[in-house]
From TrEMBL:
Low complexity: bias regions: 20-36
Species whose genome carries this gene: Isoptericola cucumis
Keyword Transmembrane recorded: yes
Biased composition (Pro residues): 1-12
Keywords attached to this entry: Membrane, Transmembrane, Transmembrane helix
Transmembrane segments annotated in the record for this chain: 56-75, 81-102, 114-134, 140-159
Entry keyword annotation includes 4Fe-4S: no
Disordered: annotated segments: 1-36
Protein name: ATP synthase protein I
């Protein structure tokens, strides 16, 4: 039986200093290196957000079908229009949040916060403009609109929670 030889420390290259901790490996160029592949965490985060977006689109489709059907039964044509406007607003609200998060995966916290805040401000402006435009209109039922929009917002939040809870995102990046 032989005993293994212990590993030998790296020898400095001839005519050069031994690189210190944190130094780039030999042959690596500072800023000229090719961009690295996305990290495991970034890929996992994108998968979670794609799942949330897919589930939200399915929710919006179900809201359209059920909202239009129930709106027609409850309030006739005005209920149909209320459901369509409510589902449209819900789709815009929900998809904008997920889209802004997808656009900033892997970015710094300042850029992500600015992007999400900008998307939130855009949502508020769109909501105010749409509600101001249809305020005095009588082609839609406001109660159907409110219910469809509320179900869309709450349902989307629950689906986002489920996507994050079931997602496999590492807590520590190697």
């Amino acid at each position: 039986m032989t005993t293994p030889t212990p590993p030998q420390p790296e020898q400095p290259e001839p005519g050069g200093e031994r690189p210190g901790p944190g130094a780039a490996p030999a042959g690596a160029a500072g800023n000229d290196a090719a961009p690295s592949a996305p990290s495991e965490a970034t890929v996992a985060e994108r998968a979670v957000l794609r799942t949330a977006l897919r589930d939200t689109l399915i929710l919006i489709g179900a809201l359209l079908v059920l909202g239009v059907g129930i709106g027609a039964l409850v309030a006739g044509t005005a209920g149909v229009w209320g459901a369509l406007v409510g589902a449209g607003l819900a789709a815009f609200f929900c998809a904008t949040t997920i889209w802004s998060m997808l656009r900033t995966v892997g970015s710094g916290p300042t850029r992500m916060a600015a992007f999400v805040m900008g998307a939130w401000i855009a949502k508020v402006i769109v909501l105010i403009v749409v509600l101001a435009l249809i305020q005095d209109a009588d082609f839609y039922d406001p109660y159907v609109l409110l219910v469809v929009l509320a179900v869309g917002a709450i349902g989307s939040a629950l689906l986002d929670y489920r996507a994050v809870k079931d997602g496999r995102v590492p807590y520590v990046q190697p």
